[in-house]
Write the structure tokens for this entry.
Amino acid sequence: IATVAGGAWGLLGKDKDATDEPFSMRHKPAPQPEYSHQSIVYEPSPEPAAVPAIAQSMVPAMAIAGASSPMYSSPSVTEALPALNAPIDFSVVMANRIRPTLISANPRQGKGMVVAYAYRKAKQVHNASTWLIQPKYVPQEMGYWAEVDRCFGFMAEDYLTAGQRKKDELCAQLTGFIQEWRAQQNRPTILIFDELSLMKAIFPDWYKTMLVPQILTEMSSGETDRRAFWAITQSPLCGDVGLSGGNKAPFDLLAIEAKETEEHLASICKSYSGVPKPESNAIYERSESPKKTIAYHSAVGDWHPMTAYPEFSASNQLHLEPNAYN
């Protein structure tokens, strides 16, 4: 895709009971086949399908006018803008930038799918290590995360009725996982943290005293150290994820909307200064996604229809015994 430079503002099974420790795993990414200039398709196979290599021309370096990053080239503003309301592969934008990003959308609008493709492309293009904290670790979505390097998976809802001691034990392990991610030497590196709204509801004290300071730390020093914190949430309000005022500025924002999510869209535009409303509802009809979604990325600066992402087949999912995770 052609890129936009300048004027962009950055931003940001369960057979065991909940008293068991969460499951952590390691697995290596599969070898990468050569890229063809066609849509990425995951063919069924006994092993997790490899992601085709992305041609460098497909992933141009993103830049903001007057800004530079040790991670990316920062060309002058010479590239042509995409056609008005043209579909954009936002996973390419995320993979190219690898910087702190807040991904916001209602449930089942494609947040996980975009992120799943983005981290795979970041691994291909930048050899980025990818870690994941997944508080809703369900088998149906394991195909999304089959190629992360480290995963801390658990079912947060199981801790709703757990005692405080069990909650504290889990939170201590989460803290250790985040600290280990920051300390590991692979660069660039991405930490994907899903379900922030759920974590805030079930673990409010840990969220406020540990996670929010960690988010602020990543906004301050993460990009300099070539770390990227990708936070996924259902909330459209920056205050609901512990951000307010100027402290959300260093984050990129990716918001995903459909015709049916008007309230979420209105809240996004109100909460994040500079996010416009779509000029016309006709933009939804140009979307290539099954749910006719559109997306806004702060580096692009406008709403665009989303491209379609092939689903991950069952053969690409991780095969774990039911008692292998909470």
In short: The chain has seven helices and nine strands. The beta strands are 23-26, 101-104, 129-134, 150-153, 189-193, 227-233, 252-257, 294-297, 303-305. The chain has a mean pLDDT of 75. The longest strand covers residues 227-233.
